[in-house]
């Protein structure tokens, strides 16, 4: 277990998790910050519950009175672990020393390199190692999985997604419908929240599947909604979809590394996720795939195939016919990019060391603290938190809808005037993600303080 005051090598790190203000700079809200009384409490909470910030590079602040940014955009791109650079350089050194022989003779041989990621990735999402592989990018993987699992026939043609699905998912399912000769406007069903509500109710999804399930071929929802931060009831919806005769897949881009998952036990058919958000593996990092074991080795299941789809023992026989293994590795196509895999491996080792149960507990505490602070700020300002208040219905993201102006402009002001980095989704939502690995209570306080100083009281 990585302790709160130790790095991954076990050496003590005495750096403060919440840096003191820089001398000579004005307070965020003028002569005295609006939430000055809460800053001491934030420091006290950080001392008692410090997290693992020292294991990451935190960007310098671009404004405000603190040297480091209050970084709450890990739901868009996670911070770089300190261990990543040296680990990546070690793989590059093997290339310079060994050339092609690095496939077998590197300290981490390249030929089976992807196998180093399999077990920790499986533990992260609650799966057996045979059900998980790291490869490609998220939307590419969704397409490869839909080749196998979206098989419209007769009246069963519909694809069910949420109306606020990430645009890439919308594009993907619409293109799949067209690929099968179907009209995407008729085929893709976009489930919306009830009038006046921001979040899609689980009961409404289940009721739709009970009423219309005989026409649904595929349910493909986001495990955690990218816009609102709502955590869907994955086991309940999966059970309802499968009971209706549909295949159920999940986009876990905002769920993997954010909330505990048990994909095998929940009987999910397939899932895919990216690794650059909560998994901190770098921009455009390799993604992950899950396929339930009941589908593995099924000779009737169609797939696209390539060199890495065949059994490893037969790969260099150079025969024209693939012999796919009875694992999810049958969905691989190309040989893995080693230098892209290294940062994913480093990050997964960090998650293995800390553990998702501990991270989830800290996430509940940290996000709850931010919520209480936001309640104070939003009470008399044109700001509304749209993320569910029930901690079990969300991850570590709180989304705020602004009543006037541009979300992007507000995000710029928070960054350049206060050193708070958040993520805007136009036209009117700004997202704050207190990531339990590296965010602090002081970061949460800085968000509230900056919003109070930036958004006028109505």
If you had to describe this structure to a student in words, what would you say it looks like?
With 458 residues, this protein is an alpha/beta fold. The chain is 35% helix and 12% strand. The protein has 13 helices and 15 strands. It has helices at residues 36-48, 82-98, 102-105, 115-125, 138-149, 167-179, 184-187, 202-212, 234-243, 338-354, 356-378, 407-418, 441-454, and strands at residues 56-57, 70-71, 80-81, 132-135, 158-162, 188-191, 216-222, 247-251, 270-273, 287-291, 383-385, 398-402, 420-421, 423-425, 429-432. The strands form 4 sheets. It has a 7-stranded mixed β-sheet, sandwiched between helices. Helix 4 (115-125) packs across helix 10 and helix 8 runs parallel beside helix 9 (234-243). The longest helix has 23 residues, at 356-378.
Report a brief summary of the structure.
With 458 residues, this protein is an alpha/beta fold. It has helices at residues 36-48, 82-98, 102-105, 115-125, 138-149, 167-179, 184-187, 202-212, 234-243, 338-354, 356-378, 407-418, 441-454, and strands at 56-57, 70-71, 80-81, 132-135, 158-162, 188-191, 216-222, 247-251, 270-273, 287-291, 383-385, 398-402, 420-421, 423-425, 429-432. It starts with 35 loop residues before the first helix and ends with a helix.
The beta-strand count equals: 15
Strand content: 5-15%
Q: Extract low-pLDDT stretches.
A: 1-18, 23-32
Determine the mean pLDDT. 93
Tell me the Rg in angstroms. Answer: 23 Å
Q: Reading side by side through the largest sheet, how are the strands ordered?
A: 4-10-9-8-7-5-6
Category from helices, strands and their pairing: alpha/beta
How far is it from the N-terminal to the C-terminal residue, by CA? Answer: 48 Å
Helix proportion range: 25-40%
Total helix count?
A: 13
**Largest beta-sheet details:** 7 strands, mixed
Shape: globular
Which H/E pattern describes the elements?
HEEEHHHEHEHHEHEHEEEHHEEHEEEH
């Amino acid at each position: 277990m990585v302790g709160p005051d130790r790095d991954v090598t076990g050496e003590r790190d005495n750096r403060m998790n919440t840096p003191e203000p820089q001398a000579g700079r004005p307070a965020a809200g003028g002569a005295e910050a609006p939430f000055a009384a809460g800053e001491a409490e934030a420091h006290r909470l950080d001392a008692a519950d410090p997290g693992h910030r020292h294991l990451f590079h935190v960007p310098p602040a671009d404004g405000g009175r603190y040297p480091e940014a209050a970084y709450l955009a890990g739901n868009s791109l996670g911070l770089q672990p300190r261990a990543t650079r040296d680990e990546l350089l070690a793989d590059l050194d093997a290339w310079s020393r060994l050339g092609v022989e690095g496939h077998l003779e590197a300290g981490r041989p390249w030929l089976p390199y992807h196998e180093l990621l399999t077990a920790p990735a499986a533990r992260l999402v609650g799966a057996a190692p045979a059900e998980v592989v790291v490869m490609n990018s998220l939307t590419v993987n969704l397409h490869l999985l839909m080749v196998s699992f979206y098989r419209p026939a007769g009246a069963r043609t519909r694809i069910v997604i949420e109306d606020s699905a990430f645009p890439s998912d919308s594009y993907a399912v619409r293109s799949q419908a067209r690929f099968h000769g179907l009209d995407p406007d008729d085929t893709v069903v976009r489930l919306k929240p009830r009038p006046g509500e921001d979040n899609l109710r689980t009961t409404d999804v289940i009721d739709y599947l009970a009423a219309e399930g005989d026409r649904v071929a595929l349910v493909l929802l986001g495990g955690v909604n990218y816009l609102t931060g709502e955590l869907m009831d994955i086991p309940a919806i999966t059970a309802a979809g499968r009971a209706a005769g549909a295949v159920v897949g999940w986009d876990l881009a905002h769920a993997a590394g954010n909330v505990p998952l048990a994909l095998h036990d929940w009987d999910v058919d397939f899932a895919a996720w990216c690794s650059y958000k909560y998994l901190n593996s770098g921009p455009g990092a390799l993604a992950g795939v899950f396929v339930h074991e009941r589908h593995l080795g099924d000779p009737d299941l169609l797939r696209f195939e390539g060199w890495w789809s065949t059994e490893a023992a037969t790969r260099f026989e150079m025969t024209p016919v693939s012999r796919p293994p009875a694992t999810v590795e049958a969905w691989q196509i190309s040989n893995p990019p080693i230098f892209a895999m290294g940062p994913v491996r480093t990050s997964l080792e960090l998650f293995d060391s800390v553990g998702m149960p501990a991270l989830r507990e800290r996430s509940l505490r940290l996000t709850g603290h931010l919520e209480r602070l936001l309640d104070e700020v939003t009470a008399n300002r044109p700001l509304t938190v749209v993320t569910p208040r029930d901690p079990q219905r969300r991850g570590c993201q709180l989304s705020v809808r602004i009543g006037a102006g541009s979300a992007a402009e507000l995000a710029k002001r928070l960054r350049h005037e206060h050193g708070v980095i958040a993520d805007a989704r136009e036209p009117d939502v700004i997202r704050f993600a207190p990531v339990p690995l590296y965010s602090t209570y002081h970061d949460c306080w800085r968000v509230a303080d900056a919003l109070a100083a930036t958004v006028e009281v109505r």
